[in-house]
Structures are given as structure tokens and as C-alpha cells.
Specification:
This protein is of the alpha+beta class and about 150 residues long. Helix content is about 25%, strand content about 35%.
Length: about 150
């Protein structure tokens, strides 16, 4: 399996857990999911062409994707394997239809062994250009989002 796979309206990335991601009780610490989700969001930004379009629109500008809200719900704990081996988890990421200036990602952390959803989350992101929030996406960014939705759908 490749690290990134598209289809069914979402992008799927792999998240390899490490022993240090687990609590002493052998349960994946929920905060580690944020790192897996972040990696997946950047895969979406890369595949959609948003990062490249922003660089072309604002050469020499400092660009940052800033998380402004996170909502998470544990569905089922991820338990460390009895043999201590790391698990392969999948992160499924949907890019919701966007507002004028915000990207909303709906994400799931899925156990790769049995395809069970372990954690769901929604992450809202704004784009900063030279430290200021982009108040409205320019047509070039909207075109990237529309094209991405068409390709992933």
C-alpha cells in the first residue's frame, strides 16, 4: 500500500504508531492523533495544489496553515499489540466544502487491521500570509479546491 490513496471522496494516509505513542496502560494517547491528522492535512494541501498556488500568488510571502479549532471523539481505543509491535493506522480525510476563508477537514483514525474507526475529528484551518489571516480565498485557490473535490470524489 502506498502512503497516500484517494477515492470514495476522501484521501487515505498511513500512520505508523510508535511505542512512545502509547500510555503505560497500552492505549494510544489521543493527542498523538493530532500529529497523524496534521500529516494527512498536508497531504491534502499538496495533492490539491493549494500550497503551490499560494506560492505562485504570493511569492516571497511567509505562508502558514493555522489550526483554529479541533473537535475530536474517541470511538474505540487503539490498544498496543500484545507483542508490542506498532500498529498501522489509516487516516481518512475529507475536505469539506469551504467557507470564504477557512478549510474544514473531517478526519477519521481507522485501525488498518480491521477497518474499524477509532477516533473521529474535525479540524478548521485558516491560512496566514505574512502573519495576516487570508480573509477570502482568491479564485486560484477556489479552483484548486474544486479540482481536488472532483478528482477525489
Amino acid at each position: 500500500m502506498t502512503d497516500v490513496r484517494a477515492g470514495k471522496g476522501y484521501l487515505e494516509t498511513r500512520a505508523e504508531t510508535r511505542f512512545s505513542d502509547y500510555t503505560r496502560q497500552g492505549v494510544l494517547h489521543w493527542s498523538k492523533s493530532l500529529m497523524y491528522f496534521e500529516k494527512a492535512r498536508f497531504a491534502v494541501a499538496e495533492l490539491s495544489g493549494i500550497r503551490e498556488a499560494l506560492a505562485a500568488l504570493t511569492p516571497d510571502a511567509e505562508i502558514a496553515f493555522v489550526v483554529i479549532r479541533v473537535r475530536m471523539q474517541m470511538e474505540k481505543p487503539v490498544i498496543l499489540s500484545p507483542d508490542g509491535k506498532e500498529k498501522t493506522l489509516l487516516v481518512r480525510t475529507w475536505l469539506e466544502p469551504s467557507s470564504l476563508c477557512r478549510l474544514t477537514f473531517r478526519q477519521q483514525l481507522v485501525d488498518g487491521a480491521n477497518d474499524e474507526c477509532c477516533l473521529t475529528g474535525t479540524v478548521d484551518v485558516v491560512i496566514l500570509v505574512n502573519g495576516s489571516v487570508m480573509r477570502q480565498f482568491p479564485p486560484e485557490i477556489r479552483a484548486c479546491l474544486t479540482d481536488y473535490e472532483r478528482r477525489i470524489g
